[in-house]
Amino acid sequence: MNDKIRSDFPLLDERRQDQRRRGPLVYFDNACMALKPRQVIEAMQSYYQEFPACGGRSGHRLSRQVDDEVDAARRQVAKFISARRQEECVFTRNTTEGINMVAHGIGLKQGDEVIISGKEHNSNLIPWLRLRQEQGICVKVLPVDSIGTLDMAALESAITKKTRLVSMVHTSNLDGVTNPLRDIAKIAHDHGAKVLADGAQSVPSHPVDVRHLGVDFLSCSGHKLCGPTGTGILYGSMEALEQLRQYNVGGETVIDSTYDTFTPEELPMRLEAGLQDYAGIIGLGAAVKYLSRIGMQRIERQELALNKVMTEGLRDLQIQAGRDRQEEGSLEKEEGSPKRMKKIRLIGPQDPALRSGIYNFTVDTMDAHHVAKMLDVSDSIMVRSGAHCVHSWFNANSIKGSVRASMYFYNTLAEAEHFVDAMGRILTL
Ligand SMILES: Cc1ncc(COP(=O)(O)O)c(C=O)c1O
Question: Is 89 assigned a catalytic role?
Fold first, then answer.
């Protein structure tokens, strides 16, 4: 990707880095949080400086401007995920909130079944576990194999007439693998169940078309889409949203009320309770406009190119180290012979084309947090370490934690090579 794109991001802009005298910084924690381009920051700033009023209530010109800008953001978002209508897009605070809105809104009762996969983020696990504890729903967890592939035959056999919802991660933050959501939706619908997709990772990384996928709901976060923190989108088909019980109620969710009754608002406002994060929503609109301008296919290609450099670079280093070990073994050990390279174990498939922008790994005999800290301190490379909010998978596989590098379109091939070099040094410590 070109310098022009990088100059849109204050943190990556080399001129600004020089000013701060802290040298280049490599940001590979994009699956957690994407960086924000100045177009997003400026859109938010314009709200605060030029029309910092409330939307949906007052009729004055500032308020009308807020409404116009929020409408424009909703249109942008709807276009971005190919929703039929903008009313199908509800603004939320994040993916987690959208999933909770569905979990508490579809009226699950004792004995109803919800199917998830064996590598869900806590955001798509805990709401169901709590409903199991408190309301007696049944949660079925589908197995995934050692390279992260979902067992579709297991879905066919797990689904019954009691299944109300299949709630599934689209692209995994653990291994970057994308589930066949369209096929999952077909199976679910054939059995009368609805589908909720956790699109936290897929929407930022791939072209996502909710109509093509055929899902009933999809939840994603603005902050992973180069948008502001504390923003998100819950997509629902009109039919699905109509059936959703209001999870949060109060101002703006009703047209009228008496001391005894109330009349709910139209969609989507009925699901957006209280004064909204207008600056955030406007910033989110600017973010998806920015991503659309770059092109989601181009973003997808860049993630793959970066992942290929990392995967092949580290694979080659490990192969070479294996050869060196063999040669070492056949020669008499000399003083000063090269140190052995520790082994990397990749989580998910070997093929980078199947892992979008995620390179997640463990290092034999090294603590994941320690590796991440070394990358930061010695090479200014920011990665995430730990269980990545998928504790259930780590516990099931008896793995303590891993190091995850996650790439986005503004990262460069040189940065990926720098990561390979830095890891090569860490592995021989
Ligand atoms: C797959 C997946 N689902 C859900 C979430 C939760 O997103 P948020 O914290 O923005 O609600 C994340 C965040 O990393 C994620 O990667």
Answer: no
Number of domains in the chain: 2
Read off the CATH number of the domain in which 26 is found.
Answer: 3.90.1150.10
Full-model pTM = 0.96
Q: Are residues 122 and 171 in the same domain?
A: yes
The residue out of 242, 266, 294 marking a domain boundary is 294
Task: Find the domain containing 129 and state its range.
Answer: 39-294
Query: Ligand 1: which residues within 6 Å by Cβ?
Result: 31-32, 94-96, 121, 123-124, 169, 173, 198, 200-201, 221
Q: Looking at residues 325-343, what average pLDDT do you find? A: 71
Q: What is the pLDDT of residues 173-186, one digit of tens each?
A: 999 999 999 999 99
Q: What does the H/E/C string look like for the chain?
A: CCHHHHHCCCCCCHHHHHHHCCCCCEECECCCCCCCCHHHHHHHHHHHHHCCCCCCCCCCHHHHHHHHHHHHHHHHHHHHCCCCCHHHEEEECCHHHHHHHHHHHCCCCCCCEEEEECCCCHHHCHHHHHHHHHHCCEEEEECECCCCCECHHHHHHHCCCCEEEEEEECECCCCCCECCHHHHHHHHHHCCCEEEEECCCHHHHCCCCHHHHCCCEEEEEHHHHCCCCCCEEEEECHHHHHCCCCCCCCCCCEEEECCCCEEECCCCHHHCCCCCCHHHHHHHHHHHHHHHHHCHHHHHHHHHHHHHHHHHHHHHHHHHHHHHHHHHHHCCCCCCCCCCCCCEEECCCCCHHHCCCEEEEEECCECHHHHHHHHHHHHCEECEEECCCCHHHHHHCCCCCEEEEECCCCCCHHHHHHHHHHHHHHHCC
Best residue among 29, 30, 33, 96 to mutate for probing ligand 1's pocket (most ligand atoms within 8 Å of CB) is 96
The active-site residue, picked from 89, 138, 220, 389, is: 389
**Residues 18-46 pLDDT 10s:** 555 456 899 999 999 999 999 999 999 99
